Amino acid sequence: MTDDFSQEEIFRYSRHLLVPEVGLEGQRKLKAASVLVIGAGGLGSPVALYLAAAGVGHIGLVDDDMVDVSNLQRQILHDTHYVGQPKAESGRHRLLALNPRIRVDAIQDSFNESTAMEIAAGYDILVDCSDNFATRYLINDLCVLTQRPDVYGAIYRFEGQVSVLDARHGPCYRCLFPEPPSAEISPSCSETGVLGTVPAVIGSLQAAEVIKLVLGIGSPLIGQLLIYEALEASFQKIKLAKRPDCAVCGQTPTVITLSDSRRFCSDEEILPLAADEKISPSELATQLRGPHPPLLIDVRSPVEQQVSFIEGALSFPLDQLEAHLAELEKHRETVVFCRTGRRSSYALRLLREAGFDHVRNLVGGINAWAREVAPQNYQY
């Protein structure tokens, strides 16, 4: 019987209906499914588009950010018309334009310990398309506590990884990563960049895993991590083990409620600095024009310095700075900077611990310098 499908829907999904593993009954399952996509960015774009095209009947799209021009290199859910507008609403318009037969919730809210349980209520599957460790741990804990699958994806430059984390049948995210990496060795996508097609590959794989879970077909990536490397065009599959001592899904869990995972993770944090450890762009500009200008240290990567620079700055990328300490004067006025002030806050801490007592961090980094002092420099 096809009474629950219109003629237009039958034609729309006809290529699914021809696949024995899907067919009409599988399409009914897709129509009845509800999926929450957390993050409407690089990964969320292909995930949401392919789920909508496949006929998943209820999609939630969570993102509290606005569309920025720099997003459009990879976040194909959005277009230039929506720059400056909420990503969740932009995504909703795009998905309904693709498939008006589905329901799309645009949730322009922060997904945190206070809102997550309510936002996720009513959805069968959660898809982790976030870009920070705090949200990944939060999604994981929510899925474990509510017994739902977490379809996980992550990207970095030319690499990506996918897994289905379902503590009922295999390991969870905390089994893989009991502790987050320190912020200074875990740069964000906005700091390291990503090849625009990598999230397309990983997001498509996440969408495929969601569809497999809904239909109950194939072998979902439970207990497995699939790693993609674009430069070598290679895939590698790694087996994952459940940890008996896992804090949330182990034999004696200590995480039994949702908590503020931002306290556990500091992946986007600028270290707290005292007033005398900070300098504004305008103050720096004044000092550079004076008789005793400070030494400038740029801790960004060489490729970033092709985009923008401050004349006369020494180039010591953060991961190489310690090796060059002997070349620097410990008691000279010094200003460190990066793109936004995050990495340079760690450089300041490193220098202070090494005995450099006159170091300050450029507030807002070179992007703030470009906005306030030197518009000939590019923001990125």
Instruction: Provide the spatial order of strands within the biggest beta sheet.
Output: 3-2-1-4-5-6-7-8
- How many H/I helices? 14
Helical amount: 25-40%
Number of domain modules: 2
Second-tier CATH architecture of the largest domain: 3-Layer(aba) Sandwich
Number of strands: 13
Overall mean pLDDT stands at 93
Tell the overall outline.
Answer: elongated
User: What's the CATH topology name of the largest domain?
Assistant: Rossmann fold
Spans of at least 5 consecutive residues whose pLDDT stays below 50 are none
Strand content of the residues, in percent?
Answer: 15-25%
> Helices and strands, in N-to-C order?
HHHEHEHEHEHEEHHHEEEHEHEEHEH
Sheet having the most strands: 8 strands, mixed
Question: What's the short version?
Answer:
By secondary structure, the protein is α/β, with parallel strands linked by helices. The protein has helices spanning 7-12, 14-17, 23-32, 44-54, 87-98, 116-120, 133-146, 173-176, 189-192, 198-215, 281-288, 302-305, 342-353, 365-372; strands spanning 34-38, 58-62, 103-107, 125-128, 150-156, 159-165, 224-229, 234-239, 278-279, 295-298, 314-315, 334-337, 359-362. It is elongated, with a radius of gyration of 24 Å.
